[in-house]
Amino acid sequence: MYRFLVIIEEGSQSYGAYSPDLPGCVAVGDTEEEVKENMRQAIAMHIQGMMEDNESIPVPHSTASYIDVSLPNSAA
Q1: 58, 44 in Cβ contact below 8 A?
Q2: Of 14, 17, 43, 61, which sits 20 to 30 A from 35 (CA to CA)?
Q3: pTM of the shown model
Q4: How far from 5 is each of 40, 52, 71, 72, CA to CA, in Å?
């Protein structure tokens, strides 16, 4: 079982997703759920292709977190 960080971005008409640890592996979808499923399939296909090409599967190194930032004179 592999576990990769996936970044999901909301566009004006759809959602896009990518994994920083798998360059070139991307997906789109009309909804967040659809893009997640499409990305799951894209990752599986990407890894399968790497295995067929005798490439090593990258070890996931990316993480994500939110950071709170206070700005002077800001209402937020």
Answers
A1: no
A2: 61
A3: 0.85
A4: 11, 23, 29, 33
Residue identified by tokens 């977190």 is: 65
* Confidence at residue 1, expressed as pLDDT on a 0 to 100 scale: 84
Q: Helix, strand, coil % (nearest 5) of the chain?
A: 30, 15, 55
Q: Give pLDDT tens digits for 27-38.
A: 999 999 999 999
Q: What's the CA gap between 3 and 70, in Å, rounded?
A: 33
Q: Which residues contact 57 (CB under 8 A, 6 or more apart)?
A: 2, 47, 50, 51
Two tokens at 31?
């909804």
What are the backbone dihedrals phi and psi of residue 47, each rounded to the nearest 5 degrees, phi first?
Answer: -65, -40
Cα dihedral angle (29, 41, 45, 19), rounded to 10 degrees? 70
Q: Residues of the chain with pLDDT > 70: what percent?
A: 96
User: How many angstroms from the chain centroid is the CA of residue 49?
Assistant: 18
